[in-house]
Amino acid sequence: MYEGMIAETVAIRGHDGDDVAAYYARPLGAGPFAGVIVIHHMPGWDEWTREVARRLAGRGYAALAPHLYSRLGPGSPDDVAAIARAAGGVADEQVVGDVAGSARFLRAQPYASGRVGVIGFCSGGRHAYLAACRLPELDAAVDCWGGGVVVDDPSQLTEQRPVAPIELTPDLSCPLLGIFGNDDRNPSVEQVDRTEEALRRHGKAYEFHRYDGAGHGFFAVDRPGYRPEQATDAWGEVFRFYERTLRAPAGGPTE
Amino acid sequence: MCSYITERVSVEGSAKGPDGWMAVDTATVYFDHPYHAPLDHSLNVDFVNAAGGAGTRVALELSAESARSLVRAILAVLEQGGEAHGGALAPRGRAAGG
């Protein structure tokens, strides 16, 4: 059986109609393929982000990773990320707009199935939660260890990040998968408990997988925090979740 | 964890990057995931020329322990250098040797 994919940089229309670069990996063939938006973390639009997009494409999804710092470029992703860092990151409104633009791009492709999910890691996990609450057009969201969904220190709320995503939980409009390490401190176990409580209280469709012996970012194979057993299991949960939410016939169980 | 904890400080001096020496006027300091260092988190310093583009940056990623060692070394050298150079390292506006 032939398998193939193409992975390339493309341009999409993001927030405010801005041109935003994106890394786009998709299977070859007529589809239909569900789409997944990959939200990069604070250090930038890096090699890990590209690997995730290719991994998703290898499993049959059209995966688009927008460069959230596009407007600050040109330059290498790490240099541009440094500019974003010095400016305090990018505004939530802009990120949500870029995710919306990414969803439009994915749905516009002739091989699109019409369903679009999102996945984010670290600050990208927070953005995934945020986008799932703000964008009713998303069909599934995966939050991998997103810190800052719960905000205990009001001084952390800024003009760029004015609302704690947990406050938007009533507006969550798609099933949510959360992946967390129980040794993580941002988010802490207690903060993840509170997020679960909010999801239950508002009757949201969600599942959390919380791993002992794992801390923050335990998928990263090039860091000491890599946990192969937990990461392998968690990736399996991610793909089972997407199979259920992005590929199963509409109207079937999504929880 | 990804955090937005960032300190920016004005600096005066020069840094040498792949394109040679450049003036730097800002240092951005943060503790977060590194881009290159094989660490979960690192103390990162970007020495930049604010008027330059994204590439006018000399970047550093250190473990927390080595960053603290570096701070101690910097302070020790400033202390010794001040004594050796007769107060040349005194902050501007204060009399040398005073």
What does this structure look like?
The complex is a heterodimer of chains A (255) and B (98). In chain A, 33% of the residues lie in helices and 22% in strands. By secondary structure, chain A is of the alpha/beta class. In chain A, strands 1-2-4-3-5-6-7-8 form an 8-stranded mixed sheet, with helices on both faces. In chain A, α3 packs across α4. Chain B is 21% helix and 39% strand. Chain B has 1 helix and 4 strands; from the N terminus they run ββββα. Chain B has a 4-stranded antiparallel sheet. The longest helix of chain B is centred in the last third of the chain and has 21 residues. The interface between A and B is medium-sized, with 39 and 24 residues.
Describe the structure concisely for a colleague.
With 255 residues, chain A is of the alpha/beta class.
- Greatest interface: A-B, 39 and 24 residues
Task: Count all strands of chain B and give the number.
Answer: 4
Which ranges of chain B are low-confidence, i.e. pLDDT below 50, for 5 or more consecutive residues?
94-98
Compute the separation of the termini of chain A in Å: 32 Å
Supply the number of helical segments of chain A. 6
Percent helix of chain B, as a range, is 10-25%
Largest sheet of chain B: 4 strands, antiparallel
Report the total helices of chain B.
1
Could you tell me the mean pLDDT of chain A?
95
Order of helices and strands of chain B: EEEEH
Compute the number of strand runs of chain A: 8
List the helices and strands and how they pair.
The complex is a heterodimer of chains A (255) and B (98).
Chain A: E1 5-13, E2 19-27, E3 33-39, H1 47-58, E4 62-66, H2 77-86, H3 92-108, E5 112-121, H4 123-134, E6 140-144, E7 176-181, H5 189-201, E8 206-211, H6 228-247
Parallel strand pairs in A: 3-4, 3-5, 5-6, 6-7, 7-8
Antiparallel strand pairs in A: 1-2, 2-4
Chain B: E1 6-17, E2 20-32, E3 42-48, E4 57-62, H1 64-84
Antiparallel strand pairs in B: 1-2, 2-3, 3-4
